[in-house]
Amino acid sequence: MMPRPVLSVTTERWQAGRARRDARLLAEEVPVALTYDGATHAVMMASPVDLEDFAVGFSLTEGVVTAAGEISDLEIVPGRDGINLRMWLASGPSDAFAARRRRYIGPAGCGMCGLESLAEAARSVPRVAAQWRTDAAGLIAAMAALEPAQDINSQTHAVHAAGFWQPGGAFLLREDVGRHNALDKLAGALARAGRTVEAGIVVLSSRLSVELVQKAAMIGAPVLAAISAPTALAVRTAEAAGITLVGIARGAEFEVFTHAARVAAPARQHVA
Fold first, then answer.
1. Given this model, what pLDDT does residue 205 score?
2. For the whole model, what pTM was predicted?
3. Which of 110, 136, 248, 263 is catalytic?
4. Catalytic residue check, 113
5. Which of 6, 25, 38, 205 has the greatest number of beta carbons closer than 10 A?
């Protein structure tokens, strides 16, 4: 039986020095194993929702496959100890996949647990070639779409979100207890819907850590924006990958850390 992403519990709430029993909704997290052709590649703590998207997105952002169609079969198998996402690859595992195999459990806040060498953490990613540009109004609109679409977080105040905004297009969002899982789910949802990210903005509810930039590069995102600040390594990685990295995007304010040319300046008004 599949667990629900939100669980209701009873708490003792204290206010003004007095206690009363109250109900609280909590975000669920469960171990989710990703297996390919019968071999476990990773076990991540994740929200038990949109798991098909998670399986496809993780496979894409980790370089296991280059297209969703390379996964010939996908089965979600709930069990007593967690959920197994069983995938079979059309052409079998690649050498790159075998070289980057993960062997340990990754907690919800970690996107690199289980890597077997320091070099794997600094893996090279493809350079984003898309030259699409936005402006301040676009960035503000993209970030403004994030919070209203976070259904699970509105109930629990405990999960991250990743969304994709493009002018005139439907806003797509996925949520998870892990910020990297949320981005994987978004990547999978886009791939399964046949949508690409070359003409839009990927927005995040979290800080910008290096694994998020790496995953964004793997799906070809030209602009990556988040509520919080990036790390120094994330900035260096975005610079090398050709990604426009936008941080501390709140309300009408934001900071562009790399490749600022993709953010168009407002046209100057000429006074006669």
1. 97
2. 0.91
3. 110
4. no
5. 205
